[in-house]
Amino acid sequence: MPSDQPDRQPIATVITVNWNGERLLRACLDALARQQTSAPFLTWVVDNASSDQSVALLEREYPWVRVIRNTENLGFAGGNNTALRQVTTPYAVLLNNDATPEPDWLEQLLAPFAEPGAERLAAVTSKVVFQPRFLRLTLATDGFSPGAHDSRDLGLQLYRVSVEDEDVTSRVLMERLAWGPEGEGAARFSWTRPSGELLVPLPDGLPGPIEVGLRWAAERDKTATLTWDGGTVTLPVTTTVDDVTVELPGTAPLVDVVNNAGSIVLTAGYGADRGYQDIDTGQYDAVEEVFALCGCAVAFRTEAGRDVDWFDDDFFLYYEDTDLSWRLRAAGWSIRYEPKAVVRHIHSATAVEWSPRFVFYTERNRMLMLVKDATPRLAFREVGRYPLTTGSMALRAARHSLKYRTRPPVRPTFMRLKVLLSFLRLFPTMLAKRRRIGRTATVSRRELEQWLVAQR
Q1: Is residue 7 part of a domain?
Q2: Helix, coil or strand: residue 216
Q3: Do 313 and 78 contact (CB within 8 A), yes or no?
Q4: The whole model's pTM is what?
Q5: What is the pLDDT of residues 94-140, one digit of tens each?
Q6: Which one of 41, 209, 298, 437 counts the least CB within 10 Å of its CB?
């Protein structure tokens, strides 16, 4: 066990925040127990007031783990801070409860801190790949433009993807194929682009041919072509929602897909995962300095974290790691990406991507981060754009409703108004934090924004 080294002082504390993650903890902690490292380390789990049997599991099966119990859910930021502010080891390491590290992960993650010239290295961030392996499909169909109020090029409506009749829609990677989801419940779908890549997760050891099911519809009757390594098929798509099944050979090759290879910030102030949904062909196998870390699997120099007071508790969930990165860099620290430190991650296992919770915190926290960290020009431009976009969206929805005599979709507008109200409540607090950052910064905001990446 990691803590069974009484004759040597631990040099790192590995922290995992848990909220109702009983189903995830075994894989994560068992992988930690298998670490092949010369560095003694402690393992702490912060439980954010789980209502499942997480704590009972920890007490029963993992007596070597220190459990810190919060009386309420403090989110990723507050949950980690509960432990980070108690750490006494030289290094503090964060690992998501839905991530499983490779056996040499911790050894590789901590090694850069000992290299010559690394005295101002604040954090080392891991190579994060998605947990399953994927079948790579390409979908192509005739495109169309919906009209003056929607400039997107659209293909077809994709409602469901299944493997062997199991619904895997939420785990399919289609960043390069589909726009964000629309609708609710059984009517929820995503518009695809005319062509793009569909990465379908497959379980290990699936014998024989693979049945992939698609539920789709289109604006008119047409065809769609699916292509994979070694085959292709053309299928009809109609205006009626319909299910089709494609049988693929069990020999179809599977690929690993990158989740994060260090993080970036776009020139519009959006945080992003470097390499997100790229097929892993070794293109991210070089050590690099990156602008931002990924909180999924990262090691900190404890001194650096204390220097900037760790995460911002007000963020709760999302953008807290990008904000921390920005503040570390403002204080003169650096951040490195280490490709040999590999973890496999179940994407959005706790907070579902595009859920109301996800949308609220990502949109609000992006603006909070810009108020705290960005130049006045970038912060004013992007924060000011949000209410204007909200009004434009509401007006467009109202016009569409009047034209087609339908009930206008009010949930998106209400969500954006909720984001604005929460942002305005925290705005004075963020301005005060901005002033404090500015008083101690050794790197200017303008200089830091040279790291920002143009939208592709």
Answers
A1: no
A2: strand
A3: yes
A4: 0.91
A5: 999 999 999 999 999 999 999 999 999 999 999 999 999 999 999 99
A6: 209
